[in-house]
Hints:
Layout lengths: L27 E2 L2 H10 L3 E7 L2 E7 L1 E4 L2 E7 L3 H4 L5 E14 L7 E12 L1 E2 L3 H14 L11 H5 L1 E7 L2 E7 L17 E4 L21 H4 L12
Antiparallel strand pairs: 1-10, 2-3, 2-6, 4-5, 5-9, 6-7, 6-11, 7-10, 8-9
Amino acid sequence: MSPADPLIDPRSGPASERVRVRRGAHRAAYDRDTIHAVLDAAPLAHVGVVTDEGPVVIPMAFGRDDEVLYLHGAVANAALRAAVDRQVCVTVTVLDGLVVARAPFHNSMNYRSVVVRGVGRKVTGAEHERALRLVSDHVVATWDTGRATTTEELRRTLVVAVPLDEASAKVRSGGPVDDDEDLAGPHWAGVVPLHARWGAPEAAADLPAGIAVPAAIAALEGCDAATGGG
C-alpha cells in the first residue's frame, strides 16, 4: 500500500467474486458504510444493460433506500426496460482531483467509486411513488415544494430496483506514487483538487414575480456538488 493512501480496512469481504476489486485491491472497501456514502454523494449513475441491439451504458438519476437502488425513466426507455428481470451493472464515480506524477506513466486520479451488480426488478404499487420521490430528492429535494405528481405522470414512468447485495467500493486519495529514482528529479508532482460547487439559483425567464426560491434549493448555493441533492 502506498503511504499516500488512507488505510482502508474492508470490514468484510466481497459478496461475490464478480464484485471483488482485483487491480488496486488495497483501495477496495466492501463495508456498507463506505458503499452507502459514495452512492449518497454521487448525483449520477451509469447503468449497463444488454439490449436486443447489444450492450449499452446509459447515465441515469437514481435514489437509494437502505439496500436498494432505484432507477427511473420513461416507460418507453428501451435500456431501462431491458434491465427488468435481467442482470445489470450500475456504477457511480465521484472525481476528487487529478494526480500528477513526475512520469506521466504514474499519473492518476483521486476518486470514490462503487460498482453494483444484480437483477433489475420492476417496481409497482405503493413502492413506485415512494421510489420516485427518493430518486427526485436525491437529485434535488423538491418533491414537497413542486406541483404534485399526477397519476398520468406516474403511469408513464418506469422504476427499476437493483439490490445492493453485490456491491464494492474503490477509493483513491493522496499524492502521486513515483519511482524512487525520479524523486530527486526536476519534474513537478502533486495533486490538482477538483472542487465542484452549486451556484446561485437562477429563476426561469417565465417565472412570475414574487415566487420565492424553495429553502432546499437556496441551501444548495456554495455546497459541494458531489453530495447529492437530498
